[in-house]
Amino acid sequence: DRGLFSREAIGLKPEYYDALYGPLQGKATAVVSIHVARPKSSGWVMLKSANPLENPLFDFNGGDHPDDMRLLVKGLQFLVRTFLQTRVMRDVAGARYMSRPIPGCQRMRFLSDEYWECHARSLMTVSWHGCGTSKMAPASDPLGVVNNRLSLRGVKGVRVVDTSIMPQVITTNTQGTAYVIGEKGADLIKEDWGFPTQPLL
Known about the structure:
There is one protein chain. By secondary structure, the chain is mainly α. The protein is built from six helices and two strands. It has three domains: 1-31, no CATH class; 34-123, no CATH class; 133-194, no CATH class. The protein has helices at 7-10, 14-21, 66-81, 87-92, 113-123, 175-192, and strands at 44-46, 57-59. A two-stranded antiparallel sheet has the order 1-2. Helix 3 crosses helix 5 (113-123). It comes from Hirondellea gigas. Pfam families: GMC_oxred_C (PF05199).
């Protein structure tokens, strides 16, 4: 599917895309990815200017923590050494790893831990959704931004009601959690303004 595996859909630089997917044009292919569900690396976000319409600056800083990189390398080794060697993948699917080093990692021993770390750092991307930039925490936490009623510390009349209040990354898509936070935030606002809330059950 050229749409699914197009350079724009995958988000790779042209040189990486041409090296990895160029030889596969017109062939049956599949992409299997390794995902660190609870990364220890954390990024940052900050205002670019005083203009509220200008996009902020941010860096997900993926792979910064060595434990995250060790997990990625371990997962990639498992994928090639174990998963692709199962009977189902070999005999039924006919799957095999594309034995072509990616640009920038050719000097390393192919499929070594060093190679896989280079591979991961070159192709790493962030999936699901960012969260945690306005952490909910008790007053004793200097990194906390909102309290347990989602009120912004030090600013009267402002609440933050989205996934940015999550103190930790969850292990799945954040959409369901966003709904829960939104419903709870709506209840807190109605409560503060004297409107009764109706329980779901």
